[in-house]
Each structure stands twice: as structure tokens, then as C-alpha cells.
Design brief:
single chain; alpha+beta; TIM Barrel; nine-stranded parallel sheet; Immunoglobulin-like; nine-stranded mixed sheet
């Protein structure tokens, strides 16, 4: 045994065998112990070597590891599952974001630094354990006084998530098959452009269209790295979309059909047929540099057309040995990102359903093939929060569900949930195209929710950037913000979007109201902006079809606005504008770290007996301040008094909203005013 002030190393003899092993415990920093266990291995096969670790369960709650809620909610107690991608799950098929990391209510997290096949058993028979197929295993035990501390330290170890371009925060629209619903058009390419035009005609904010497989020639419509005859001029299609304010995304997967199958076989790049018993199309072994570069070069043919990103699918359906599945989920996302970087630097976006740990550097997540049901909507709400706990903060679901046709009510409720997700992607198609198969009320709901999602881009983008730096989820479970509230350990049917907005989706058919638990503090009904509730209790709120219950915490600052034009051709004189809502607290100062796409600019607000002060540097766009307050005696902006009325400030006594326009640096004082929350 060797011992220092920061480490302990020991040579061990494995009981019942003649094999030796080594273990080391190193403080890589005061809050992180890195443990390495290794042994000689049996030498027969990598799949015969395993390192197993076991801990005593102390009744704590465990969050993380899998996107899918195997225990039913956000807590993993009782789960006994492989650490791999899964198929065949009932309510949502193939939801496969994962990371070998969990965080607990006892103030620590555990991160296994492995891409091997593994297994976790959580809180069963008084034990929590994991094993990975290898002769050496490295894992980190991470201490933190708060969940935020642990997320920050995990983020430093594993690396932060991708920071998408601004347009990726706007809504994305797509069809499962552009050949299947040609009402009013002659071919698939015309359908792509018609959908883009229909969104503009109805003033539904969007920035992206994606085309799902099949779109190429040959079996499965994939593998010849081309477009079929229903897309007669792909280059023109890309340019037509660009002129309308849209980018184009395409479905891709490491599944070899047609030319890619022929070439891959000839070059020896593909896994053998025995690895693909169900005929799913074998994967290339992209651990081989030649195979990796070959795939990237073939994707480049689409990039040259101007494609701006990928919907990255599959990788957990038998296309490759299970032992490679976790590593592949990282390598293929990396390959896909690199195929775009040469042309677009960082101006691209990738969504995946199958992702592992550090692939967060390259991709956001969509949660697999959801069924068109309220049960699948509820499952998606859980998955969003679970993905946050493994630091995949850019997340969305197939709005309305993928398998089946949503009725009007389900579609409306899912549109509302997607509006308050970091990714809003909407599936249309036969019998489910909003402007062809539903009534004006649903069209209006789609317009309003897409507008709300668009208006939240300044807020969501800022929190996503913060997540890349700190690991703190954007769509976060309430327990991560209120760890001392024992009632929240497995609460999943409401969540925080960032730190300011509480979202309570309607998840039951026929519901026109719902109960909402409000944590400690004071909360304002964000829909009416007049009703204040004391937290620590449940309230019942109205939720008609077009409304999702929302609440904002006391002291919040919420930057909103129209900062990305996208498909907005109905405003010919469009310019970027911000709208900053301030809900001052008399107890604590408010601060929001606004990310303008380049740097972080703090926005601060404080209340004192002399009034309310709001200050920030140039945020990069003009806009309006909306401050919810009372007892306004006067307003000064950058030291100069403002008159009430046009050109100065306005105050609506009924809504208690003071509005001031701004350009550049702001140091605003609302004299004598106080916030609308009680003391």
C-alpha cells in the first residue's frame, strides 16, 4: 500500500483466485475522489472481463443514468437495468439518451468514465451497484453541498453540452414521409416548400424544416446518398427554403443500405451479418479511421447542398455488437458534427434519440418514437427532466406523438408542452396536418404556442448557455432547486424552465383545470400576471384548452423578445427587439445573466425604500422594459427624468405594469415604487 496526502494505492489479491488487482483512490480536487480498479483479466474476450462495484444504499434518491423512467418517475430507486440503448419499450419506443452518472439526495454523485457495456442496480436489497465489461474501471465520487455543485463538477469532468445556434431554438416542422401526403402538390419537394409557405401564411414562427427517411433512391430510401425523383432539384429546394428563412435538416443513421452497403462490404468497413440478424442494415465500425472518414465524406455530399443539420437515428437495434453500442453513440454524433463543421463552423444543429454521455458535446435529444396518447405526453415530461439530470439540456419530443394520430385536445396540450421545452419540433402528415386536418382553434393554438416558444429564445438561449458552463439543467426537476422539500423527491408532473418559470403541463384528457404544487416563496400566475400565491402548498388553476398553467417566482427577470427573423415575412420592416420582464422582490436583488450569442451581460433589479432600480449594459438589441410594480412616483433613465406618456414611460394601474423603451445601456430608477409581492 502506498499513501500520500491526496492518494491511496493498493495491490490486492482477488479472493478465490490467483489473480492480482490494483486499486487507487486519488483526490483530483478536494471535492472529487477518482477511483481506479484494475486486474489482469482472463484474456479470453473483452466480454468476459467485468469490474463490479457495490455501495450500501442509505435510503437516498438517485437521479440520472437513463432518459427512460424505468422506476416510473424521476427517482431510480429499484431499477435493475443494463447501461445500453433499449428498444421495444411500450409508451415511448427507443428513448436512449444515457450517461454513466447519477446524482443523489445525500450530496454526492458517481460518474463512471467508461464507454463499455454496463449495468446498474439501484437501491435493491440494501445495495446500489454497477459493473462494466472491462478489466479496468475508473469512476469519480463527486461531493457537493448542493445539486448545482455536483452538476458543476460533473460538467467539468465530462465536458459541457453543445451550444446550438440561435435559429435552433425556434420551432422545427417535419413529416415522417414527404411522399405520403401530396394534397395540393405534385411531389415531395413541392410538399416541403408548401409546408414552409403554409407556416408563413398562417404566421406560425419557425426556422427549420427537416426531412425524414425515405428521401433517397433504393431500398429504405437511404444509402445512395442522394434524393429520389420526388425531389427533382434538391439544391433549389435548399435555396427556396433559405430565401423563406428556413434551414433544412435531414435524417441520417449508421445503417448501410444500397451503395453504402456495397462499398462498405467491399472495403471491409461493416460489421458482419451476424451482428444484424434482423436485417436492420449493418453499421460501419467507425472505430476504424478509414470507415469514420468514409462516412463523413459521404455525408459531405448533403452538406455541399446547404443542409444545416441532422436528425441522427438508430444505433440500438442490432446493427452492431452490444459491446460497441455506447462508444458508437459518441463517435457517430462526433462524425456527424464534423461533417457539418467544415462548411458551417458552428452554424448547424443535430438531434439524436440515441446518445451517450460526452456525445452531448455534439447533439441535442429527441425522445424517441412516442405514441399519440396522454400517457406518452406524461412520459415525455418525465424524460425531459431525466435528460436534464444527465446533462442533455437541449431536448424535445415529437409534438402530438409519433405513432398514431393525435386528436385535437392531445395535439393542443402537446403544443403547449413543446412551447416550454428547449426544442419545439412538430410532426405533421396524413390526417394530422394542423392547417388541413383540424379547425381554426387548433391553428390559433399552434400559432400562439410557436410564438411563445419564439419569444422565449432570449431566455432559453441564456439558460442553455449557462447549462454548457455549469451542467445545471434547463428543464429541471423541482427537487434540484428546492432540495429541502421532501415532497418533491419524485415530483415530475411540473418542472422549472430555467430558474424563473414553473411549468405545469395538462396531462389528462378532458381536464380544464389542474392542481399545481408551488414550492417555497411567492409565485405569480404568469398567465394573468396579477394573482400572487404563497408557496409551500397546492393550488388549483384553470386550464382551458388554449392555456398551460405557468408561474413566475418573486424577483424573476425574464428576457423575451423577437431576436431571430426566421420565417417572419409578414413584417417587412422587421428588426430584432427584446422585451424584458421584471418582477421585483423587496427581499432579495434579482439578477439574470443574459447571453447575447457572444458574451454574458448581467441584468439586475433591486428594490429599496427609494424605489426600484434596473440596470444592464448594451444587450445588442433595443427593446422594452416591463416592470411589475406599484406606487410609481416617477422614472429616470440614465439620470434623466422621463415624462409619462409617449416618448417616456407608461404605467397601467390595472395590470401594475410600467413600460419603458430602451436602447443601449440602461440605468433605470422607478422612484418610490415597490414590487407586487408582499413582504
Amino acid at each position: 500500500m502506498t499513501k500520500t496526502a491526496t492518494s491511496l494505492r493498493a495491490k490486492l489479491q482477488l479472493a478465490g483466485s490467483g489473480e492480482g488487482a490494483e486499486a487507487s483512490f486519488i483526490f483530483t480536487r478536494p471535492e472529487v475522489i477518482q477511483v481506479t480498479v484494475s486486474f489482469g483479466g482472463r484474456g479470453a474476450s473483452p466480454e468476459t472481463d467485468e469490474v463490479f462495484q457495490e455501495f450500501t444504499d442509505q435510503g437516498e434518491h438517485y437521479y440520472g443514468i437513463w432518459e427512460y423512467p424505468f422506476a416510473g418517475g424521476i427517482d431510480n430507486r429499484g431499477v435493475d437495468r443494463d447501461f445500453l440503448g433499449f428498444g421495444g419499450l411500450a409508451t415511448v419506443v427507443n428513448p436512449n439518451a444515457r450517461a454513466p452518472f447519477y446524482i443523489t439526495s445525500n450530496g454526492y454523485g458517481v460518474y463512471v468514465e467508461s464507454v463499455k457495456k454496463g449495468h446498474y442496480t439501484i437501491a435493491k436489497d440494501g445495495k446500489t451497484s454497477f459493473w462494466f465489461q472491462d478489466s479496468s474501471l475508473k469512476y469519480d465520487i463527486i461531493y457537493g453541498r448542493t445539486y448545482a455543485d455536483i452538476f458543476q463538477r460533473y460538467n467539468a469532468l465530462a465536458g459541457g453540452s453543445v451550444m446550438p445556434p440561435t435559429w435552433a431554438f425556434d420551432s422545427i416542422w417535419w413529416r415522417d414521409d414527404h411522399h405520403a401526403d401530396l394534397r395540393g402538390v405534385k411531389n415531395a419537394q413541392e410538399k416541403v416548400i408548401d409546408d414552409a409557405d403554409q407556416l408563413i401564411r398562417r404566421r406560425i414562427r419557425a426556422s427549420t424544416i427537416w426531412i425524414d427517411r425515405p428521401y433517397g433512391t433504393g431500398t429504405m430510401g437511404w444509402g445512395n446518398m442522394d434524393f429520389d425523383s420526388s425531389f427533382p432539384d434538391p439544391a433549389k429546394m435548399v435555396q427556396d427554403l433559405k430565401q423563406r428563412g428556413y434551414g433544412l435538416l435531414l435524417w441520417i443513421a449508421d445503417r448501410a443500405f444500397n451503395r453504402m452497403a456495397e462499398e462498405g462490404t467491399q472495403k471491409g468497413y461493416l460489421f458482419p451479418p451476424s451482428s444484424d440478424p434482423n436485417g436492420n442494415g449493418p453499421a460501419a465500425d467507425i472505430r476504424k479511421k478509414e470507415a469514420y472518414d468514409w462516412w463523413k465524406e459521404n455525408l459531405g455530399q448533403y452538406v455541399k447542398l446547404g443542409v444545416k443539420g441532422w436528425k441522427l437515428d438508430r444505433g440500438e437495434e442490432g446493427e452492431m455488437p452490444d459491446s460497441f453500442m455506447n462508444e458508437h453513440a459518441i463517435l457517430f454524433a462526433k462524425l456527424a458534427a464534423e461533417s457539418l463543421q467544415a462548411a458551417d463552423k458552428n452554424d448547424f444543429f443535430i438531434l439524436s434519440r440515441n446518445a451517450n454521455d460526452v456525445s452531448r458535446k455534439y447533439t441535442g435529444i429527441w425522445n424517441g418514437d412516442t405514441r399519440s396518447s396522454f400517457e406518452a405526453l406524461a412520459m415525455s415530461v418525465k424524460q425531459a427532466q431525466r435528460c436534464g439530470a444527465i446533462e442533455f439540456p437541449m431536448w424535445g419530443s415529437d409534438t402530438g406523438g409519433y405513432i398514431g394520430v393525435p386528436n385535437k385536445e392531445l395535439f393542443a396540450r402537446w403544443l403547449e408542452f413543446s412551447a416550454y421545452s428547449t426544442v419545439m419540433e412538430v410532426l405533421i402528415g396524413p390526417k394530422r396536418t394542423i392547417w388541413m386536418d383540424y379547425d381554426d382553434e387548433l391553428i390559433n393554438i399552434a400559432r400562439e404556442q410557436a410564438a411563445a416558444h419564439h419569444d422565449l429564445i432570449p431566455y432559453a438561449r441564456s439558460y442553455l448557455y449557462r447549462a454548457t458552463q455549469t451542467g445545471m439543467p434547463v428543464m429541471r426537476s423541482l427537487i434540484f432547486a428546492y432540495p429541502d422539500d421532501a415532497s418533491l423527491y419524485d415530483t415530475w408532473d411540473e418542472y422549472l424552465l430555467g430558474g424563473e418559470i414553473l411549468v405545469a403541463p395538462v396531462l389528462e384528457a378532458g381536464a380544464a383545470s389542474r392542481d399545481v404544487y408551488l414550492p417555497a416563496g411567492q409565485w405569480l400566475d404568469y398567465n394573468d400576471k396579477t394573482t400572487v400565491y404563497q408557496g409551500g402548498t397546492k393550488v388549483t388553476v384553470e386550464a382551458p384548452l388554449a392555456k398551460i398553467p405557468l408561474f413566475v417566482r418573486e424577483g424573476a427577470i425574464i428576457p423575451r423578445g423577437d431576436i431571430w427573423k426566421g420565417n417572419n415575412w409578414w413584417q417587412p420592416s422587421w428588426i430584432a427587439r427584446l422585451r424584458i420582464e421584471v418582477f421585483p422582490s423587496s427581499k432579495v436583488a434579482g439578477r439574470f445573466d443574459y447571453y447575447n450569442g457572444t458574451v454574458v451581460q448581467p441584468i439586475t433589479a433591486s428594490a429599496s425604500p427609494g424605489g426600484i432600480r434596473v440596470a444592464f449594459a448594451n444587450l445588442g438589441a433595443p427593446g422594452t422594459l416591463e416592470i411589475y410594480c406599484q406606487n410609481v412616483k416617477g422614472v429616470t433613465l440614465n439620470g434623466a427624468p422621463l415624462a409619462e406618456g409617449a416618448g417616456g414611460y407608461t404605467y397601467d394601474a390595472a395590470t401594475k405594469k410600467l413600460t419603458v423603451r430602451f436602447t443601449g445601456v440602461v440605468n433605470l430608477v422607478v422612484q418610490g415604487a415597490s414590487g407586487i409581492f408582499g413582504l
